[in-house]
Amino acid sequence: MTERKGPLAGVKVIELAHIMAGPTCGLMLADMGADVIKVEKIPGGDDSRRFLPPDIDGEAASFMMMNRNKRGIAVDLKQEAGKAVLKRLSKTADVLIENYRADTMDKLGVGYDALAEENPGLIYCAISGFGRTGPYADRGGFDLIAQGMSGLMSITGEGEGRPPVKMGAPITDITAGILGAMAISAAYAHKLKTGEGQQIDTSLFEAGIVHTYWQSAIGLATGVAPGPMGSAHPLNAPYQAFKTKDGWITLGAANQKNWLRMLEILDAPEIADDPRFAENKDRMAHLGDLEEALNKIFAGQTTQDWLDKLKAAGVPAGPVLNVNEMHADPHALARDMVVDVEHARLGTVKTLGLPVKFSKTPGEVTTGAPLYGQHTREVLGEYGFADEEIEGFIASGAVIAAD
User: Fold this and answer.
1) How many angstroms separate the Cα of 335 from the Cα of each of 30, 341, 392?
2) Whether pLDDT at 1 is above 80
3) N-term to C-term CA, the chain
4) CB distance 191 to 120 below 8 Å
5) Rounded to whole angstroms, how far apart are CA atoms 44 and 296?
6) Residue 274 sits in which domain range?
7) Any domain includes 40
8) Structurally, how many domains does the chain consist of?
9) Which residues contact 332 (CB under 8 A, 6 or more apart)?
């Protein structure tokens, strides 16, 4: 076992999760030093192992992204021997993460109540589509569904009357995982003070809702549901993307100070002197006219020309990069957001880094995603199973161990 570093070093986490939301939660904890043991189902393991293409020599890129820094075992929880393995691991675990339907773990006899009897200090984090209570609790959940029902798809896109658009990233999956990791950290702080564990319940639905803070503020205050505005902001202007001679820039000249700074470099008295654009409330009331006027100006010079001028004037702005351009961006590299990691079969591969930096207890990405059953023998041995027991489990199909 590789020694883990970070603020959560020494924390034992069992991850019974697949695809995105639960694995994101485990990933956050693993990057901060926790020993995350990913328990994959038999047969097949995490479904993202079969999200092909893209792949690197047969290994699914999506699985490798979400599961580096974890150890992996394969267990059949429908067999009594498989349940015995999970119960042994859970008895001394600090945290268990799962993102199955609400009643799945209880039906298997390994839900929170059953595991907490043996380990009252267990922090059990359940991430689902709609949570464990309410009229939708028994529904399965996917990011697309959650984006639609949380209001996100009603505020994403180019404008009224256009087809609904989801955000490009699976934002409710990822956010639910981050919310889970945040809640686990809070529950762990409580456990350190009291010794008590507890159950955590969050969902993709709620993860989508929290991204509507500004739009919900408008709706709750006015009774009017805001709609999509492209890249524009519902409260401030100009705060959006503009097309240049050779690409796009994003511009944050929304507050009055930055608006006045921008006017100094535009050399456009027709805009500076126009009462429709004098204050933010005026610009928001005439946003379409403002966009049209600014688009004409920004289209006259290159992205880099504008970025140089805006930077010199102290106006926040940036280019619109594609994902590969972001990977090569010098600031992303300086912040260790693209790093090399060693994979058991592939050797060195690239992955994304830890988005939080700690001055005293830095986390790190040290190991690639596990092969299917890669650490089964290692983990079971650590938890007290004798060699002959482990071989018996393998022979019966209760566990799978990679050779």
Assistant:
1) 19, 16, 47
2) no
3) 17
4) no
5) 55
6) 248-319
7) yes
8) 2
9) 326, 338
Secondary structure of residue 201 in the 3-state scheme: strand
Residue 171 corresponds to which amino acid? I
Q: Which amino acid is at 116?
A: A
The CATH number linked to 85 is 3.40.50.10540
Residue 22 tokens, joined: 């639960």
CA-closest candidate to residue 221, choices 213, 230, 209, 229? 213
The C-alpha atoms of residue 230 and residue 158 are separated, in whole angstroms, by 4
Kindly report the backbone phi and psi dihedral angles of residue 98, in degrees, each rounded to the nearest multiple of 5, phi listed first: -145, 150
Q: Cβ distance 323 to 352 under 8 Å? A: no
How many CB atoms are closer than 10 A to CB 31? 24
User: Does pTM surpass 0.85?
Assistant: yes
Cα angle value 173/51/90 (rounded, 5°): 60
The answer to whether the beta carbons of residues 259 and 253 sit under 8 Å apart is yes
Given 31, 35, 173, 201, the catalytic residue: 173
Q: What is the DSSP code (8-state) at residue 210?
A: G
Q: Do both 92 and 139 map to the same domain?
A: yes
| pLDDT at residue number 241 | 97
User: Residue 65 has what pLDDT?
Assistant: 98
Q: Which of 154, 112, 144 is nearest to 16 (CA)?
A: 112
Q: What is the pLDDT, as a whole number, of residue 98?
A: 97
Residue 192: exposed, middle, or buried by beta-carbon count in 10 A (0-12, 13-18, 19+)?
A: exposed
Three-class SS state of 121: coil
Q: What are the pLDDT digits (tens) for 149-159?
A: 999 999 999 98
**What is the rounded distance in angstroms from the CA atom of residue 127 to the CA atom of residue 27?**
14
For Cα atoms 108, 114, 119, give the angle at the middle one, nearest 5 degrees. Answer: 135
C-alpha 367/C-alpha 275 separation (Å) is: 59
Residue 69 lies in a domain: yes
Q: In CATH, what number is assigned to the domain containing residue 296?
A: 3.30.1540.10
Largest pairwise CA distance in the chain: 85
Task: For residue 38, give the nearest of 393, 386, 385, 373 by alpha carbon.
Answer: 373
Residues 144 and 285 in one domain: no
> Does 173 qualify as catalytic in the annotation?
yes
Are 274 and 355 in the same domain?
Answer: no
